Amino acid sequence: MARGNLKTCLPIVLSHEGGWADHPKDPGGATMKGVTIGTFAAFKDRKVTKDELKNISDADLSAIYKKGYWDKVYGESLQHGVDLATFDLAVNSGPGRAARTLQKVVKVKQDGQIGPVTVTAQAKLRGDDLVKLICSSRMSFLRGLRHWSTFGKGWSRRVADIEARGVAMWLKAVGTDGGTTLALVDEGERAVASSKKNDKAAVGTTGVATGGNVALGTQGFDPTLITVLGVISLLLVLWLLFRGRHDKNRAEAYSRVVQEIRADR
Length: 265
Fold this sequence. Notes:
This protein is mainly α. The protein has two domains: 1-175, Up-down Bundle (Chitosanase, subunit A, domain 1), CATH 1.20.141; 178-265. Helix content is 74%, strand content 2%. The protein has helices at residues 6-17, 37-44, 50-54, 58-70, 82-93, 95-106, 116-123, 127-143, 148-173, 179-218, 223-264, and strands at 20-21, 31-32, 35-36. Strands 1-2-3 form a three-stranded antiparallel beta sheet.
């Protein structure tokens, strides 16, 4: 289990949260280092100003992340890497969704409350596989949000980085030694291959859809049917392109982690 791993996980999460942000399309509102003004007000048990949030202390920041996210997803009881993936998801989308996502991939009741049953279930499975499943499920959820067009690229890079670092954490924890780098390189190569496959499929789908719709149109088919088929084809192409781009981000993330490991030796 990941005893004391918050000190390792928190800086990674904060690296993606950045500093001050007050984007009008951000549903969380004003945010400082990942802490929304609503979360800070709840922590202080009073109304707070944006200036107060901008100047949040390190002590308050650590306390908020531990009590509001890490403890709520039982971070201390999860495998290395699984704790990071679940913790970052909790910070980004809420502890309840993080809990349900973990419960979904370990196949237990999705009640949004991590407890002994969920902890035991995740301990019986390979942590690296769980990290990838959590991140894949997370991307499916994010892709369906109405703010995807605004924040999608950043979300994809973040989840890809969390996946690569989570997998690396688990490999290191189970003592693969030199095998850690090789395993990460393999994951990166698979991501590259998947990206190329999805991009090729998108191009193929576009060609087939265009040619097919033209052919149908010349044979007197119902224009409504042609339109529906065109929309379906477009949605499929967009999905394949999305998968291809995310796989590129995954490949880059694994490569980056490998370089960091090699640099530390």
